[in-house]
What we know:
Blueprint: E1 7-12, E2 21-27, E3 30-35, E4 40-44, E5 83-88, E6 94-99, E7 104-110, E8 116-123, E9 128-133, E10 139-144, E11 148-153, H1 187-202, E12 216-220, E13 225-232, E14 238-244, E15 249-253, E16 261-265, E17 272-277, E18 283-287, E19 292-296, E20 301-306, H2 308-317, E21 332-337, E22 343-348, E23 353-359, E24 370-377, E25 382-391, E26 394-401, E27 422-427, E28 433-435, H3 437-442, H4 444-447, H5 478-484
Antiparallel strand pairs: 1-2, 2-3, 3-4, 5-6, 6-7, 7-8, 9-10, 10-11, 11-12, 13-14, 14-15, 15-16, 17-18, 18-19, 19-20, 21-22, 22-23, 23-24, 25-26, 26-27, 27-28
Amino acid sequence: MTFPYQCLAAREFTETGPGGWTLFGACGSTLVAQSSSGGTSTWTKPDDHIAVPEPEERDEEKEGPPEKKVKLSQPPKQQKVNFSNLVVSSDGRYIIGVTGEDKCIRVFETDIQNQLRQLSERHMTRRPCSITLTSDDSTILCADKFGDVYSLPLLPSPDYRAPEAPEEPTQETEWVPSATVLTVHSGRNRKTLEDQLKTKKKGPAPPKDEMKFEHQLLLGHVSMLTDIVTTRTEHNRSYIITADRDEHIRVSRGLPQAHIIEGFCFGHGAFINRLCLTRTGRLVSGGGDAHLYVWDWQNFKLLEKLPILDAVVEHLKCRPKVAVEAITKVAVSGIWSVPNQEEILVACEGVPALFSFKVDAMTNTSSAATEYSCAIALKGNALDVTFLPISPTSSAAVVSIDNVHKPASTKEVREDEEIHRLQCFSSLENGKWQEDSHTSEVLKSFHEQVFDVEAGASGGDDSTTGNGKGGLGAADDKALRDMLYSVENLRKRPGAEE
């Protein structure tokens, strides 16, 4: 069985002639590159095998009753890492990928034959959730799930030397809470005291792993970060915009003053998952709300709300073959600005369609003129989108779709025959989108690539592949679902503490 591409990225490639491009895709732990001329190359992380000890044989001649069997913890199974982010530098020379299971940022270089060569791998102490590059392509900005943003040089300096480890700290006096069960009277305070005593019994927290490569902590949130974008205004001022699970959008200055907060964009009532800067300079944000939010981010002003939930409901009603229950909420999984167009495409988790919104080309950002345009029906749930530069003024949209699960479902497995993992679309003069059969044919070899995808540390089921290897063997494997669908997990459960 072929598994879907969870990440896509593209670059313009004019070395072989005008209109050239290269498409990159991540299928599990494998990267695939294909050029407009048809050449294809792949990169797969080498396996790091873990030795599993053989069980001891039972001595049947041993006298006495059999000993009581004790269930021992099993050694961790060998698991492959899976790419969760792909970013291409503006010059198209470098590809930056994040593998979440080992918290690693990998930098690849491509040549004129589109061969992928890994230049570096740097393991962060916390799992990265989003990465981007500064406008000059010199620095990687990495946001992690503990709320911190780090900067790393794109290409590590060979002369960098990690600072020496500090001396061993002196023995600290053992901490004893001043309160006791006799002095605490409220239920909440009693629970707090019990938690403190439990923490004390566990002993001191293990020391935090040190990152042995060049890096700098830029800023931090008090909540899980979900996305990061950078921009430079017409006055040549750079900014870093970050979003988190607690409905915050923070606007900070760019390097080297990222610690200075310019302001916040408040208004979301649910988690924020995606940020997108449009061609007109507006900021569009989306997540667990029923609307997309359009911002004049430099003045921290909400311009308008776009009804994404209504668009999803209306579209699914027009597709009787897609059996779904009443939809009351959506989770925005992607927002993309269409190159050279005043338009954005939006994907929602578990929805087999893209939704187009036209953004009026207005220089006055205090006004708003964005409207819902159309829905682009897909054969499977949308996973990722990228754009191939077909000409100086037009692009083809390449959509990675889930070819394993049923459309509009994140759990039920398809029963029909296997479908294409990619769908391609081109924009018509009237603003509508139609399937691009020519680009789909060019990407035929990209689709036909088959890899052995395995689960990372995502808590998958104990299933096996047909060849006997542990991993994402079954199409209904929980590990595969966790890799493809994780946005809805950001939603706070009813009754959860704020």
